Amino acid sequence: MNDVKEARPLAGKRILVGKPGLDGHDIGAKIVALTLRDAGAEVIYTGLRRSPAQIAQVAVDEGVDAVGLSILSGSHKELVGDVISELRAHKAGDVKVFVGGTIPGEDHAALRELGVAAVFTADMPLDRVVSQLAAELA
Amino acid sequence: MNARDPNPPAELAEPVLGPVSRSGIPVPTAVDASAVKPENIGKPGEYPFTRGIFPDGYQGRLWTIRQYSGFGTAEESNERYKFLLQQGQTGLSVALDLPTQCGFDPTHPMARPEIGKVGVSLSNLSEAEILFKDLDLSKISTSFTINGTAAIIYAMYLAVADKQGVPRSKLTGTIQNDILKEYVARGTWIFPVRPSMRLIADSILYSNDVTPRFNPISIAGAHVRDAGATAAEEMAYTLANGLAYVEELKRRGGDVEKFAKRLSFFFYVHMDFFDEIAKFRAGRRLWARFMKERYGANDPKAQHFRFGVVCGGSSLVAPQPYNNVVRVAVETMAAVFGGAQSIFTCAFDEAFQIPTEFSAELAVRTQQMIAFESGIGRTVDPLGGSYFLEQHTDRMEEAILKVMNEIDAYGGVTPAIEDGWIQLRLAERGLERKLDTDSGKNVIVGQNHFRKEGEQIGVREIFKLDPTVAQRALEKFQRVLDTRSQSAVDASLAKLATAAAKDSENVMPYLVDCCHAYATVGEMVACLKKEWGEFKEPVNL
């Protein structure tokens, strides 16, 4: 990770980290937010209990390059789909959406079909999360 | 990469067994026997209870065997409870869905996607009546994992008992009811810190009188631990929170000799075996000392540190899921060596799904094997007097006190939470643990060491939540709204509002009346929010 800190591969990128819905487990979102900041990104963390519409609105207002959503309650398909539709309604469909949390392998393809750029699982090393994000946002 | 490749590129780094425990306590390869003072060890059942709160340990009473469960609708959860009781589970453990936990009715737009997902939807008394149908509440101990709306769910439980004709004095069980750790680690808060503390004190004082065999709080380190805290930090935050509740109970006129007897605790048990055992022994000793020396509680029962344990959610991992069966067995043994009063075993698939009947049964069987085959519960604190364990317990106690002193220096848990100070500390600890896991320093077999790349999760059975759950919950909810007496609901809510506005009043009897009138969780919460406001989450990173 020290390499990541020095290289700052996300320098100049603005990324929103959001917790849509009622799931209150925020440690994963916070860990990712701290990591993205260490990698040079400007991070906007929404805090808990935000509706998809609120998250999309913040993403548009802040002009972010990417939105990272963390969900552990099993409601990822509904909530992620709603965030993406809201972004499209704001003509911000080009903002890349990433998802992390407890997401069963069988749902990854469905999320990609909804328009998700990548799904990060809990056991994925943080430097891989950063490098994949950097590649997607390049 | 094919998982059957005979030479998969498993992690090449050699795992290292470090010279310090995961709580950062140095572990000598051999302990100098003279470092252990026999007078610090004491006897089981005697102050300060390092070796256990009872002289006869599990011979007198085995721990309660529970299994965290609840999903979908009350009907489905009721069936799962009956199945688990048939397998020899000895107490119920109710998981509530997020709308119920956060105080939203199923009709609320934020609730819709979450109905029945991580627990059962319990929006009003009629659902509780279904949940406990044909279960004798005078005989079954029920534990509810609920915090933000704990007082309401407790009131609902009393109302169900009333309906079933079970005397309230016979009820046994636990409501978690620990809001402080919700603010820092799990997020099902509703009201600001101070009114929440009042609500919790109200429920504890009421319970002491009305349900004297019930535990009205289970002060829980568990979520703090999963968020990144070490064993020592988990115990430190929990004891600090416990003392904050004691202060609030005293402020509301409680008698420590009485209320302290019903305070209970709850922890995760992770994989660092001796850290875990030492954590429980040190915690028991510290709590007894706080109660006696700081608060003057002389009745031993008011000094007792009674606790339940669940295997660490975040200690179980999705890669190679069957490895979790072994982890759960090791963790359960640590809980038994630590003297737990109640144990929930995780099912091996909990790292990625709601347990199936198969995995839930295996988790119950794990406890039964340890309880009835291994014989480790025959004697109290069988590792007591071990040079290493006793020294490690002393070191653990020092590590716990160090963190508690830091919280005191900040000004106590309430301002530390309001400022977001503890939340930030935990996020940083969580990041450290994740980086140690990524680098392989924290060895997790099958995940960061000895892992076969590209291996798919292979389990016998995948849990499928019935997709009609939300619709069925909504239909039942509407039926209740249509058939209840609206004037009775309005009257009960109006009385609740009056009680909430007056700090000297206890809101519990009014909540029970609201439940009897079939007021919904969302209505009761909205009524209290109007008086008390909502918690403003400090978002600092």
TrEMBL record, chain A:
Coiled coil location: none
Short name of any one Pfam family annotated for the protein: B12-binding
Keywords assigned: Cobalamin, Cobalt, Isomerase, Metal-binding
CDD domains attached to this UniProt entry: MM_CoA_mut_B12_BD
Record-annotated B12-binding domain positions: 12-138
Keyword Transmembrane helix: no
GO molecular function: cobalamin binding; isomerase activity; metal ion binding
Cofactor(s) the protein needs: adenosylcob(III)alamin
Gene3D superfamilies, per database record: Cobalamin-binding domain
Keyword set includes Oxidoreductase: no
UniProt-recorded name of the protein: Cobalamin B12-binding domain-containing protein
Organism listed in the record: Ramlibacter henchirensis
From TrEMBL, chain B:
Domain of life: Bacteria
Methylmalonyl-CoA mutase alpha/beta chain catalytic domain mapped to chain residues: 27-534
This protein's name: Methylmalonyl-CoA mutase
Pfam families tied to this protein: MM_CoA_mutase
A GO molecular function held by the record: cobalamin binding
Keywords: Isomerase
